[in-house]
Design goal:
Layout lengths: L1 H17 L11 H4 L7 H7 L2 H6 L21 E7 L2 H16 L3 E8 L2 H13 L4 E3 L9 H9 L4 E4 L11 E3 L2 H19 L4 E6 L4 H17 L4 E6 L9 H11 L5 E4 L8 H7 L7 E5 L3 H8 L4 E6 L2 H16 L5 H4 L6 E4 L16 H8 L4
Helix pairs in contact: 5-13, 6-7, 8-9, 10-11
GO molecular function: carbohydrate binding
Subcellular location: Cell envelope
Main location: other
Amino acid sequence: MERNIRGRLAVMAAVLAVGMPLSACGSDAEDDAAPAGAKTAATAASQASPETARALQRPTSIGIDVPLRGPIARDKTIYWIQCSSPACVALTTPLKAATEAVGWRLRVVNAGLTPESVKAAWHQAVQGDPDAVVGSGFSRALYEPELKALADRGVPVLNMMTADPPENGYAATQNYGPDFVAAGERLGAYVLDRGGDDVNAVSVTTSAFANLGFVARGFKDAIEAGCPSCKVADELVPATSIGNELPTRIATYLQAHPDVNWVYVGFTDMMVGVPAALASAGISKDVRFVTLDSLPTTAQYMKDGNYLVAAAASAKPEIMWRHVDFLLRHFNRESTRPSTAHTLPIWTVTADALPSTTETFPLVEDYEQQYRKLWGID
């Protein structure tokens, strides 16, 4: 039973790591609904540190400027190990667009959401004849033998949104441990710019998801480095509370710690239902929240000034195209350093900068055109 629970937590971690595509909203009336002391992105940027000011601006570059030197490799089949959550499924569209742009075949392998189905999906990849395999954050512990088998055959395996570094079978990993630390540092810097030396914060995470620990560490380090008198506590919650009693847990914690005025809550799903619980508990909107990524529900919270004020967005569509960029260079035996550098676009999204409430959107509006130009197919 314990082994099965751990396996399911690993799958839950993969769903968390992939996250929901960023959907959001904007309004001309945010200031009227904003919590006390809130600022618009433009005002915050003008008064923020240079690093925070840059993060508040929507990025315009994909982070790669080295063009492909050789021709596009032909007749390639890419396997995409796709979990069955909407978050995973949404990543298929940009990956399909990228592979079609270079004339490759994409085979989507449904990995489901259980340890058994994940392993079975990777087994399909081993039994097949892929030129490369792309995964999306599942712990390698679920498919270690299959990963080794692919590596032994020289098949490049690419991963993303994971705690696992790019080694021992992974040819490349996008948005892993160090990137999550950096995201936490950006959120911490944002909180310091907004709260000054009055920051009394708490990180609400779960030990089941290693990536959240990286974010929490960066968040805490940034605040403590910039404000030795500020406080940052850590509150661990069970993974099983997500989607269940977590909002009540957070409200109860804040009732017991009335001096807390900033909260980093692990990722956007953990924010769902929190404002209603806080309001019922009489928690002031002077307590402000930051998180990772956004859902339409949480974007509405942000628009309405309903506790949530900022989210560190993830460049998921851009990552799917960067996978193909890596493979193009790999197949040509060109340097893959441009593809693996920690240069993914970043964006700390606030209420007045949210592009849409109905559509997912990339961080870089013309990211497809930029990649096509690098590949000589614009």
